[in-house]
Amino acid sequence: MKEFKYYSPKSLNEIFKIFEAEKGETCLIAGGTDVMLEINSKKVNPDVVINLKSIDEINYIKEDNEFIRIGAGTTFTKLSSDAVILNSARALAQACSKVGSTQIRNLGTIGGNIVTGSACGDSVSALVALDAILVIQSPKGKREITLTDFYSPGQKSVCDGCYHNTPGIGKDEVLVEVYFKKAEKNEFSAFRKLGKRKALAKSILTVGMSIEFDDDKKVKNARISLGAVGKHPYRVTSAENIIDGKKLSDETIEDCLNEISNIVIANIGSRASCPFKKESVKGVAREVFASIIEQSSL
Ligand SMILES: Cc1cc2nc3c(=O)[nH]c(=O)nc-3n(C[C@H](O)[C@H](O)[C@H](O)COP(=O)(O)OP(=O)(O)OC[C@H]3O[C@@H](n4cnc5c(N)ncnc54)[C@H](O)[C@@H]3O)c2cc1C
């Protein structure tokens, strides 16, 4: 491993001063569960490493009248057991509880999961279904971007020295917060993951869902996300449209599952994993529907 300078700042302002003072490649570390592997294997060779662990400003879960706000430095352990997340964003609590192992959940952060930008980032799949927005800060101020746009090509340039699989963050920027709307009275969310084992398993595929019902128990607003079926998790709007305005009968759900399967074929049709994923996605999504129906006691 190449020698590097190490900083453990206590505030975002301190980080921005380090960015300004240091001319070499800098690398942020939150839990280190992704990036330390890259540094140890010399795939990433930073001159300067900045540890985010002592920055309390980015470690919180808050709710106001409209939104739930999560600091980027919040760990999976905290998210999977937090009452606000369990009550109002069940999909995210379920996703965070399924990440890696206890040790990984104690260290790994939601911000690291988002910035790493892996195809199978569990919290990301849930956050796409929750229509999350990111707050990114630099010395010039704050900007906001939807999670979906964050992963679009053409975003800000990648920090060369870092392990970023996403184009969405610049060299002098820190992801500080992710937020989304609080669930409405009749809105429920759920997440399921398919992995090779129960623990320490990278997702083979993930499904996230958030569904709001009207007073007649018809779907008023649906968001469905797929993960590990493409470069980053994404919404499947044509499948959402199938259930929109309808009651969740067995027939409607089957139609939706078939459309989700078609989307898998359209996105990874040439890959060896497609025959397996196009079938298994139906079982995983069926479980997600079952969880939502159970929560809503329809
Ligand atoms: C054994 C093992 C099992 C795993 N299992 C899973 C799993 O089941 N599901 C899953 O989704 N992931 C899994 N992971 C991957 C990893 O734990 C997650 O991606 C985790 O969320 C990374 O967070 P971190 O805080 O450790 O990020 P780090 O490794 O510290 O950082 C990752 C990247 O994000 C950047 N970064 C971090 N925070 C910020 C910020 N606030 N602003 C800007 N850039 C930032 C870093 O510079 C780096 O490029 C696993 C990893 C291991 C080693």
Protein traits:
single chain; 298 residues; alpha+beta; Uridine Diphospho-n-acetylenolpyruvylglucosamine Reductase, domain 3; Enolase-like, domain 1; 3 domains; 5-stranded antiparallel β-sheet; 4-stranded antiparallel β-sheet; 12 helices; 37% helix; binds flavin-adenine dinucleotide
How do you describe this structure in short?
By secondary structure, this protein is of the alpha+beta class. 37% of the residues lie in helices and 23% in strands. It binds flavin-adenine dinucleotide.
Topology:
Layout: E1 5-7, H1 12-21, E2 26-29, H2 35-40, E3 48-51, E4 61-63, E5 67-71, H3 76-81, H4 83-88, H5 90-97, H6 102-107, H7 110-116, H8 122-129, E6 133-138, E7 141-146, H9 147-150, E8 174-181, E9 187-195, E10 203-213, E11 219-227, E12 234-235, H10 237-243, H11 250-268, H12 274-296
Parallel strand pairs: 1-3, 2-3
Antiparallel strand pairs: 4-5, 5-8, 6-7, 6-8, 9-10, 10-11, 11-12
Helix pairs in contact: 5-8, 10-11, 11-12
